[in-house]
Amino acid sequence: MEASDSADEFIPAALAAFGVEADEIELAVMGAAHELLWPPILELLSFDTGGVAPEPAPDLSQAPPR
Amino acid sequence: MSEPLDLSLRGQAAAIAAGELDPAELLETALARIEARNPAINAVVETFPERSREMLAAAPAGPLHGVPVVIKDEWPLPWRAQRFGAADMLAKTAPGESGPYRALRDAGAVIVGVGNMHELGASSTGNVSVYGPARNPWNLERCPGGSSSGPAAAVAARLVAGAVGADGVGSIRYPATYCGLTGLKPTFGRSAMDGHHMADLSTTIVSGPLCADAGDCRLLGSVLYGTDLRAGDAAGLRIGVIENEVSEDVALPVREACEKAIEDLRAATDGEVRKIELPELEAATLATVLIANSESLGGVTPTRLNNLDPELSPLGRGLLKYRLMLPAVAAVKAHQLRTMARRRLAEVFEEVDVIAWPTVPAVAPPLEAPLVELPSGTLTADAANVRGGALANLTGIPAISVPVGSSEGLPVGLQLQAAWGRDELLLDAAEALEGANGRRWVEAAPPAAAEPTEV
C-alpha cells in the first residue's frame, strides 16, 4: 500500500482517536507530510538497532565515550 | 567614509574603536537603510529606534561596541517577546533577557531590528511567515532560506554586517548558502541559548552567527560563545568526502563549484582529500527530523490543536497536527541512530579533520514553488536540503557553510563539519578557502545591496 493510500485511512483515524479536528487543507498538508515521511519511517522501523544501547543522557557537546 | 554599513562587522567595530566612525551616526544610517531597502526584502520585521539608541547610550566598551546587529525572531528581548515567525507558537512567551541578548549587550552591540523567520522554524526555505516571507536579495522571487531567513537577507542586503540566527536542522546554514553568506552552526551547547522557548527541551538547536565571511563569524561567534574563537592554522587539513546522494544527487553547477572549492581548500592548506563512509547518514537524516519534531510537542494537547490561531498558516496547522502521529518506536530508534552516528563520526574524525559536501544540492528555489531539480528528479527543497544539514544537529558537531560559487546568479555554498569543539578549525578552514579564491564569493554583493543610503 502506498503512503498516499494509507494516508486516506490512517490520518482521519488517528485524528479521530486523538479528538483533533482538521479542515480539508490541513488534511491535504498532512497527506503530503505522510507521503514524504512515512516510507522512511517504515524503513527506520525495519532497521535493526536491537544491539545499540542509546547513550542515556548524551553530552552532545562532546564525542561519545569510548 | 560614505557607506560605513558596507564595512565588515570587524571593520565597523575597529573604526568605532579607533574613533574614526561615530556609532550614533552608524545606528541612524542602519535605521535609514532598513527603511529604504527592507520593504523589498522583508528581512527585518520590527525596529525600535528608541530602544536601539538606549542600548547604544549604555553600551560598554566591548568587542562590538556601537555595532548594529539583527537578531532572529526566536529569542525574547527585554521589550519584546519572540513570535517564532508564527501567529501561534504553542508556547508561552514574554519579553525578557535571553542569552543572545545579554551576550550582544555585554559586547556593546546595538540590536537594531528583529529578523524574519520561517513560521515555527519548520522549513529550509523561509517562504512562509506570519510577517510574510523574507525575500532573497540576490533575486527577490527566490527563497532566502530558512528558518533564519531574515537574519540572512538582512546581512546579504547590507542592512547590518552581522546577525544572530538559530540552527535546529540546518536553519543557519541553509539561508547562509541561499544568500551567499558564511553561517556557523556551533557545537551543541557552546553558544548562548537561554531564554529560547525550547532551551530546556531541544537537543538540536543552537544560536550562531550569519555574516559575510569567516572573520566576522569569528567575531560575532566569540560574543555568542562567551569565549575568544582564536584563529589557528588549517595547514595539512585532512578533508573527508563522501560518495552518496548528499554529494552526488546535486545540481551539476553546485557539484562542480563544491568540488572545485574542496580542491582549492586542499591546495591552500597543503592538505589531502580522503574518502569516508557514513552508512548511517540516510537514516540519521530522518532521525534528526523525528527528534526535532517530537521535542517540540511538549506544549501540545488535542484541545490546544483544536484552538490554533486562525492566522497560523494551513501548512503550519497541518504539520503541527501531523506531529501527533509520529510513532514512539520511531523516536526510540532515532535516539539509537543518534548514538550510532555519533560513534561513527568519532571514528571518522580520527581519520579526517573536516567533512565537506554541498550545504544544499541546488540554488535558492522560487518562493512560490520551492522545488529543486536534481539528477534524481524534482524534490521539495526541504526534502533535498535536510540530507546535508541534519547530521550536525543530530550528533552535536559544529558545521559551517561557506560561499564558493554562483549559478543562475544565485550563490552556492560548501558545508564543512568538524569534530565536537573544533569550531575554530572550521573558521580557519573557511578563511583558508576565502584566501584560495581571492575572497571572490564572500565579497560578492547582490543587487539589493547596491543602492546608496541617504540619512
Brief sketch in words of this structure:
The complex is a heterodimer of chains A (66) and B (455). With 66 residues, chain A is mainly alpha-helical. Chain A contains 2 helices and no strands.
Task: Kindly describe this structure.
The complex is a heterodimer of chains A (66) and B (455). By secondary structure, chain A is an all-alpha fold. Chain A has a domain at 3-46. Helix content of chain A is 59%, strand content 0%. Chain A contains 2 helices and no strands. The mean pLDDT of chain A is 88. With 455 residues, chain B is an alpha/beta fold. Chain B has a single domain, classed as Amidase signature (AS) domain (Amidase signature (AS) enzymes, Alpha-Beta Complex). Chain B has helices at residues 9-17, 23-41, 49-57, 99-106, 149-156, 173-179, 214-225, 245-248, 252-269, 281-295, 302-305, 314-323, 328-351, 381-395, 423-436; strands at residues 44-46, 68-72, 110-115, 162-167, 182-185, 206-211, 238-242, 272-276, 354-358, 371-374, 377-380, 399-407, 410-418. In chain B, the strands form 2 sheets. In chain B, strands 1-3-2-4-6-5-12-13-9-7-8 form an 11-stranded mixed beta sheet, sandwiched between helices. Chain B has a two-stranded antiparallel sheet with strand order 10-11. In chain B, a hairpin with a 2-residue loop joins strand 10 (371-374) and strand 11. In chain B, helix 2 runs antiparallel to helix 3 and helix 7 runs antiparallel to helix 15 (423-436). The two termini of chain B are 13 Å apart. At the A-B interface, helix 1 and helix 2 of A face helix 10, helix 12 and helix 13 of B.
